[in-house]
Amino acid sequence: MTSSTTEPIKITSKEQAEWFLNQYDTFLFDCDGVLWLGTHLLPRTKEILNYLTELGKKLIFVTNNSTKSRLTYTKKFASFGINVTEDQIFTSGYASAVYVRDFLKLQPGKDKIWIFGEAGIGEELATMGFESLGGIDTRLDEPFDATTSPFLQNGLDDDVKCVIAGLDTKVNYHRLAITLQYLRKTESVHFVGTNVDSTFPQKGMILPGAGSMVESIATSSGRRPSYCGKPNANMLNTIISAKNLERSKCCMVGDRLNTDMKFGVEGKLGGTLLVLSGIETEERALEINEAYPRPKYYIDTLGDIFDLTH
Amino acid sequence: MTSSTTEPIKITSKEQAEWFLNQYDTFLFDCDGVLWLGTHLLPRTKEILNYLTELGKKLIFVTNNSTKSRLTYTKKFASFGINVTEDQIFTSGYASAVYVRDFLKLQPGKDKIWIFGEAGIGEELATMGFESLGGIDTRLDEPFDATTSPFLQNGLDDDVKCVIAGLDTKVNYHRLAITLQYLRKTESVHFVGTNVDSTFPQKGMILPGAGSMVESIATSSGRRPSYCGKPNANMLNTIISAKNLERSKCCMVGDRLNTDMKFGVEGKLGGTLLVLSGIETEERALEINEAYPRPKYYIDTLGDIFDLTH
């Protein structure tokens, strides 16, 4: 099973922090709950990222948020005064696009993708040369009517070879109905889910996540999607191959046991660090559970590593 | 298992038709696919219903459609020139309301119900004296914003003791998000699903059904609903008790194996008749399958019984 048998170590001293950092040359960070909470940067985030860069570490940012493209993410980092390039960022939308191109072998310029989701997915597909339909097309904001929907007027588009579904806060019956028609059209239309997260935290609330929408589509279509985000191996394989990494020298840093820690442990990365600034508690970090592994290390906040080493 | 072992009998002669009718004093009919297809009445529907009434049979109409109340259904029957009273009609919305009142023992005038669904549910609750929230409230048509939603401004309503979820073609993030807040509030808020159907046919298309929406909410909340419509026993118990029926003298007539036929067989009704005017084929009617039972009888259309006996 995925549960690690050794007791998680809480990093509480300078020596532990330095020993922790020395083991890895690459750190993969989840973003929300680790670096920031929504629009609020967590203390010492900038300082620890700069320090790791000074130490010559490679930094990679891995998020299951498919609503923003990697380019849009660089702007979010920049708004916090953190300079990160697009090639350091991996989103579940980007991982889905890579999966469509490299694993499903769809052809840019020929095959099209139907999107149930927000801007981040279509933008990543476009940079690879794929034409996509659906997604943020405002004609989908209109109430569904089978006789007038512009997406049905001339029949379904035969060039659509895949449906990618993720979080869509503009979910409506029109989007659900047309997505279903593509999945029912033929089994040869692939079904990809950006990420399995059933909820996500926002402003102190727990809101419906990508997984809850993908499961609705899975139920109506009677089909199962291939999921691409954490903890799925598709996401890690994309990163390892793009950045030419040695797994044993990588550490995954995140705030969720069932995605981030599972991702690091099942991906056989050298280490995992759980931060308690997001949704998990110390009690949960130490608890042995069949559903997800325990972290190798844990700490209250990522910034504590900066404080301990300075 | 639910699979019946005897071969389904196709009714093809006057003798068979008369023998079939003589066995039962009550006929329970599914509506769409049996009596009509959408807004198009099937041939001889009026004639066979009149004939059964002349023979002294009790007629009951059982639909998993929760979007219309029983009163609204009487108007649909009237539009086809068929005179049916409200007490002959059982919808999954009505069954859900009965379940809330009689099984969950919620108190009209005191306990409230949050609705994810269309008008039929709230109207049935209102006739029982229950106050409901959500549903067709047009303020839910506005985009979701946690800081401005009128459903969150003064906190959640502590009098809400149950969520009923069903088909809602006005599904949006606002409705999904507030429904989730009530289900997360406390386990003591009950979770009822009107019906499990993942899709339904309309104008030659297969569209997302109640089950696909309820499963989305089940995924985000991590909770399982109690389903009330066919084939669930809640629906049949409501009917049997309201109409004081003897199960062995009842025959279920429907167009779906996995809801109507399962409903009749698991409910231990005397007979089941599958009509092939809806979504099933003769091949499927005869096939032995673990997931649903075979009918006792089948026929191309309900109207054929009239033709055979006249």
TrEMBL record, chains A, B:
Catalytic residues, chain numbering: 30 (nucleophile), 32 (proton donor)
Record keywords: Hydrolase, Magnesium, Metal-binding
Recorded catalytic activity of this chain's protein: 4-nitrophenyl phosphate + H2O = 4-nitrophenol + phosphate + H(+)
Residues noted as binding Mg(2+) in the record, renumbered to the chain: 30, 32, 255
InterPro entries: HAD-like_sf, HAD-SF_hydro_IIA, HAD_sf, PGP_euk
GO cellular component, one term: cytoplasm
Cofactor: Mg(2+)
GO annotation terms (biological process): carbohydrate metabolic process
E.C. number(s) listed in UniProt: 3.1.3.41
Free-text cofactor note: Divalent metal ions. Mg(2+) is the most effective.
Any GO molecular function: phosphoglycolate phosphatase activity
Binding-site positions, substrate: 230
Top EC group: hydrolase
NCBIfam families associated with the record: HAD-SF-IIA, PGP_euk
Protein name listed in UniProt: 4-nitrophenylphosphatase
Protein source organism: Naumovozyma dairenensis (strain ATCC 10597 / BCRC 20456 / CBS 421 / NBRC 0211 / NRRL Y-12639)
Gene encoding the protein: NDAI0H03980
